[in-house]
């Protein structure tokens, strides 16, 4: 193990264990107004009138008329309103906010507000769309020739559902206007500078008049990437109107119903096979964006770039569309579009192999990419692809090949077993030229006269350990004890914009900036003096330029790789699936802290298993999310997967990451649905073909009862 990988006690461990960590809900309630949203009860309607009851002294109603700037939240396309405009576009859309010193009274006022609507026809199903937010298309090779010459052609449709981030701490933000007129917003978030840009726009204020700070944050998983910009604008407008501190924290049902989730998808795969090999894929990807665009553009980009998986497909055509429905807007979630298409391509490859009478693992191994091969976007895999060695590690851990062969035979009796495997990558960092052209990260180190060093960056610790791993990097280069280097929760009045905490970029990209800054500081160190050093992102020279209009070039500088296997036992009387074992082998380059990385792999893998199996969420025929509590949105726990084995790592170093580190946070979730559903499919019989996730116990019973093919 590398020295840097040796585990230490996390910097925030003591405060959290002792209950001393200050979350946004922990601030003294005196002189704070509680904010609660008035939400639309219609999926699509024109707002005719909002009739308020008499407001007691000290209570306020805030809506679009109170916005001093632009009623658009600055995300990607800027179409999400701070408060509803002339129409509402989904059930739960915020029409306004009631603020006051007593939360019970705020609830009473909201219950007495009368909203008059003019009903409009909503679009609730992805297949009924009439608005396309984003439409991308790319390809390589000669797709028509490949299909014309094919021995066999296969076509299937795969579907994936919602997944809610279900962080322990629900969405919460707080705002106040300071004595100098500066608007100060803080709360639970991943991207302070995203929130700052949004509030500057909504309030029509300059950069020196808006301050954003992250409070201790109880998890994010992508759900606190863009959404805090929306809620931040809403509480900021309320604070400006009332002249008071305003805090809004969602209840769990509110959070489950009305915050952004993983995009549901419907993906059509058409595959050409010649001489037992896949020669072409024609892929149509459709993501359900919900009512507004939010982050759909970049989620869809990643989803279609990996639509052919880790397979060398010489002839490829991919089209991706993100479409509008009048449902809760979709957004970022760990994996960011990749889980939807990796599930689809893994199942497609399984089904083609089964039809050809070839073992699914053997078939996939024959199609794997290797170093030097062309990527889907005609870039290059510049570094080694360790998948074959990783397959062997997983095989040895769970006896995969033998079990897969054994379970493929016809099974009888109440309990039947299956095992499945998925293999995949996660592109590390922003897609394309985003890091170079848009983020332009800056990181600094501030050495104080007493020899302590503060890290100045805007990346948020949301449980993944940046307050520990960043100082480890800097302390190593400066030859300092770890306690001499510290990293606080970012405050935009203090730290530069080192970019958002997304895209598995924090350690790989910003960590490397800090490593280089530490080397610079070491060379310039003067005892007893205050010193500040700075580093800026520069794209590596080896990158093949990426052109988004053509989807050509290196979409990512490097890739993290993984192989998952899941073994299940199906109870044919109940449809319940018992997970006998879940095994993951991961390549994240050099771990910056071994225990932290293991924790990330365990948590992410378990989230992926939930996405594959129990986390069923749908909207009803009115467009409202039905599964709005932990009674009917079932997330797995350690009890559900007692044999979760992730302590298998392959260290394929990335030379432009700190000590060889590359993206880790998103990787472990991505492959679980493909492995799990293949295992269930195998247990249910050789003629069964499954094509959607999550695949629940109810779905299993339908197969057993002959209601599904």
Question: What does this 3D model show about the protein?
Answer:
- It is a single chain.
- This protein is of the alpha+beta class.
- The protein has three domains: 12-21 and 440-536, 2-Layer Sandwich (Aldehyde Oxidoreductase, domain 4), CATH 3.30.365; 32-122 and 165-258, Aldehyde Oxidoreductase, domain 4 (2-Layer Sandwich), CATH 3.30.365; 265-431 and 550-705, Aldehyde oxidase/xanthine dehydrogenase, molybdopterin binding domain (Aldehyde Oxidoreductase, domain 4).
- Helix content is 27%, strand content 24%.
- The protein contains 18 helices and 24 strands.
- Strands 3-5-1-12-9-10-11 form a seven-stranded mixed β-sheet, sandwiched between helices.
- Helix 13 (466-478) links the parallel strand 18 (453-456) and strand 19 (485-486).
- Helix 7 (296-305) runs parallel beside helix 8 and helix 15 (594-612) packs across helix 17.
- It is globular.
- The relative contact order is 0.13.
Write the layout of secondary structure elements.
Elements: H1 13-17, E1 32-39, E2 45-51, E3 60-62, E4 87-88, E5 94-100, H2 103-112, E6 114-119, E7 132-140, H3 143-148, E8 152-160, E9 172-177, E10 183-187, H4 192-203, E11 210-214, H5 227-242, E12 245-249, H6 252-258, E13 265-274, E14 277-290, H7 296-305, E15 315-324, H8 338-356, H9 360-365, H10 387-398, H11 400-407, E16 415-427, H12 434-439, E17 442-447, E18 453-456, H13 466-478, E19 485-486, H14 506-524, E20 531-536, E21 559-571, E22 577-587, H15 594-612, E23 644-649, H16 667-670, H17 672-684, E24 692-693, H18 697-704
Parallel strand pairs: 1-12, 8-24, 10-11, 14-15, 18-19, 22-23
Antiparallel strand pairs: 1-5, 2-4, 2-6, 3-5, 7-15, 8-13, 9-10, 9-12, 13-14, 16-21, 17-18, 17-20, 21-22
Helix pairs in contact: 4-5, 7-8, 8-17, 13-14, 15-17
């Amino acid at each position: 193990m590398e020295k840097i990988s040796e585990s230490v006690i996390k910097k925030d461990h003591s405060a959290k264990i002792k209950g001393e960590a200050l979350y946004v809900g922990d601030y003294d309630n005196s002189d704070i107004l509680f904010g609660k949203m008035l939400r639309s009860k219609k999926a699509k309607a024109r707002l005719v009138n909002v009739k308020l009851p008499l407001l007691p002294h000290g209570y306020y109603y805030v809506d679009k008329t109170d916005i001093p700037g632009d009623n658009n939240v600055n995300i990607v396309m800027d179409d999400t309103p701070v408060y509803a405009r002339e129409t509402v576009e989904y059930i739960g859309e915020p029409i306004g906010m009631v603020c006051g010193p007593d939360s019970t009274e705020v609830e009473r006022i909201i219950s007495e507000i009368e909203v008059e609507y003019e009903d409009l026809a909503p679009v609730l199903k992805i297949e009924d769309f009439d608005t396309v937010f984003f439409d991308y298309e790319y390809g390589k090779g000669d797709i028509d020739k490949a299909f014309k010459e094919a021995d066999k052609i296969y076509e299937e449709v795969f579907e994936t559902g919602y997944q809610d981030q279900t962080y322990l701490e629900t969405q919460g933000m707080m705002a106040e206007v300071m004595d100098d007129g500066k608007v100060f917003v803080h709360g639970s978030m991943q991207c302070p500078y995203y929130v700052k840009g949004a509030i500057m726009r909504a309030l029509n204020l300059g950069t020196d008049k808006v301050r954003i700070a992250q409070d201790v944050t109880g998890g994010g998983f992508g759900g606190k990437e863009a959404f805090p910009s929306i809620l931040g604008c809403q509480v900021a407008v309320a604070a400006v109107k009332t002249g008071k501190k305003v805090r809004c924290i969602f209840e769990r049902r509110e959070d489950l119903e009305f915050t952004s989730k993983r995009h549901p998808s419907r993906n059509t795969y058409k595959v050409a096979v010649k001489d037992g090999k896949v020669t072409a894929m024609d892929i149509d990807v459709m993501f359900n964006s919900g009512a507004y665009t939010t982050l759909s553009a970049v989620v869809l980009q990643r989803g279609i770039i990996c639509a052919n998986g880790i397979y060398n497909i010489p002839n490829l055509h991919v089209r991706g569309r993100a479409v509008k429905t009048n449902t809760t807007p979709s957004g970022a979630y760990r994996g960011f579009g990749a889980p939807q298409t990796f599930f689809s391509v893994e199942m497609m490859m399984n089904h083609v192999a089964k039809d050809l009478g070839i073992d699914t693992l053997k078939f996939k191994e024959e199609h794997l990419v290797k170093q030097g091969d062309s990527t889907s976007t005609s870039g290059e895999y510049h570094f080694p692809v360790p998948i074959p060695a990783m397959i062997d590690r997983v095989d040895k851990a769970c006896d995969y090949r033998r079990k897969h062969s054994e379970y493929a035979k016809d099974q009888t009796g109440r309990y039947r077993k299956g095992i499945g495997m998925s293999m995949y990558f996660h592109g590390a960092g922003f897609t394309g030229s985003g890091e170079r052209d848009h983020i332009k990260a800056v990181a600094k180190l501030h050495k104080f006269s007493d020899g302590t060093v503060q890290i100045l960056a805007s990346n948020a610790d949301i449980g993944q350990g940046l307050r520990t791993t960043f100082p480890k990097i800097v302390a190593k280069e400066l030859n300092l004890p770890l306690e001499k280097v510290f990293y606080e929760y970012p405050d935009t009045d203090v730290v530069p914009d080192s970019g958002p905490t997304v895209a598995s970029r924090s350690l790989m990209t910003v960590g490397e900036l800090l490593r280089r800054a530490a080397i610079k500081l070491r060379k310039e160190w003067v005892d007893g003096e205050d010193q500040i050093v700075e580093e800026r992102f520069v794209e590596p020279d080896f990158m093949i330029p990426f052109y988004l209009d053509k989807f050509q070039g290196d979409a990512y500088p490097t890739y993290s790789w993984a192989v998952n296997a899941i073994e299940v036992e199906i109870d044919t009387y109940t449809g319940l699936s018992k997970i006998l074992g879940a095994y993951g082998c991961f390549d994240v380059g050099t771990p910056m802290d071994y225990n932290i990385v293991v924790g990330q792999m365990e948590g992410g893998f378990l989230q992926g298993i939930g996405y594959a199996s129990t986390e069923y969420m749908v909207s009803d025929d009115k467009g409202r999310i039905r599964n709005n509590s932990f009674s009917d949105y079932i997330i797995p726990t350690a009890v559900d997967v007692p044999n979760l084995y992730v302590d298998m790592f392959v260290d394929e170093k990335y030379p432009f990451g700190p000590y060889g580190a590359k993206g880790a946070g998103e990787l472990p979730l991505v492959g679980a649905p493909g492995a799990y559903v293949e295992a269930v499919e195998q247990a249910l019989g050789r003629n069964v073909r499954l094509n959607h996730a999550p695949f629940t116990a109810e779905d299993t019973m339908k197969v057993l009862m002959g209601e599904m093919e």
